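Q: May I have one protein plus its fold?
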Amino acid sequence: MSFSSDEVNFLVYRYLQESGFQHSAYTFGIESHISQSNINGALVPPAALLSILQKGLQYTEAEISIGEDGQEVRILESLSLIDAVMPDVVASRQQQNQQKQQALKTEPPDINGEEVTSNANENMEVDGSIEIPPSKATVLRGHESEVFICAWNPTTDLLASGSGDSTARIWDMSDNSSSPNQLVLRHCIQKGGTEVPSNKDVTSLDWNCDGTLLATGSYDGYARIWTTDGVLSSTLGQHKGPIFALKWNKRGNYILSAGVDKTTIIWDAASGQCTQQFSFHSAPALDVDWQTNTSFASCSTDQCIHVCKLSVDKPIKSFQGHTNEVNAIKWDPQGNLLASCSDDMTLKIWSMKQDTCVHDLQAHSKEIYTIKWSPTGPGTPNPNMSLILASASFDSTVRLWDVERGACIHTLTKHTEPVYSVAFSPDGKFLASGSFDKCVHIWSTQSGQLVHSYKGTGGIFEVCWNSRGDKVGASASDGSVFVLDLRKL
């Protein structure tokens, strides 16, 4: 069995994408001519590179575990990946294992004459009553590649999804049928006078506040506005390269986008024209969030956060303090505090009233991919519940923070792989989390207890709640989208 450099490149490209290194994946894909290889990406399972490396490790371990006399030597410690490519380490490990095997032959067994096995994994099993039955899950099939994003319409049970197959889809979940109607929103570009599929990922989407229009952002550099019946109403083209994030303002008259071209753009939604382009970042802009109808924050690979305002030609505030790329930013419901999370494993809280961060929250042990504020606290529909911030990390945990005190209230530890997405229910009482372990977990925000759980068929990129708070949508790396019906559970 052998493999070509094209195949290795594709696996590395897919690994970068799945790990959230989207601009690295984009650059690597261009340099290695991924688009010219004839590999059908839809057939490559998620985490393929890691799976092959894991199998290689097991093979190496198996080699070591056969002693010189042909007898099996019990491996007492697993090899690390780095160990496996270092022959000296492997040789010394082999020697140690043979010595340990000899020692084991002379040691008495434990009291019961049985091997002691760890029960560390037993508490990872979800309690039977917590598991959501298949009858309460609707799996939506149609996408031909991973589904990076999904979002509910704010007024009706329409679920939008965006995929690597260069389409977005709108699924009508209002009649609770097992095979709901789907609208396919094909992202095309002009080539030689004809429309052809862009073959680029759709990685961001957002509904306007009254649910009449859907905006999508694509790696083809265009943002697009669609009606609820799937008609393309305008194409917004000014970015040079992939769009990483896009958001409507509350009033619904502007759309904000962030791109690999290091710029952020405010678009006039009615005319489709670029109203203002901001070029203050020195590297790709990764996320944006509106503070008011005319001011917003942006973050970047350059480790900086800028707050900008329409018609003002310089940032009105800049925040510096992160020591690695800033993945996501979110204003609290009042627009007073800005939360940011980074590959530097910290999340920070900022205020327009000061230059340094209000809180520097350090508890995660790997990159923090995203953050969400609870829809609670003073001035919200749920004023009596305190304001909480949730953070999702590649260390497989979710943390809930009391921002006023700068303290971690709960650490949610049932996931076993990186957590890509978190979402609060509209009343703030529950939090949904989605991980590459294929599980969606639903937690009580008050107690931190796991309430419901569902295991899908692919790694989860995004989770979202409908406006009534009785359905959770999720999108996955295997092309599936599913909806969990939480009524009468």
Observations:
- The two ends are 49 Å apart (CA to CA).
- The helical segments are 5-18, 22-31, 48-65, 81-84, 87-106.
- The chain has two domains: 5-111, 134-485.
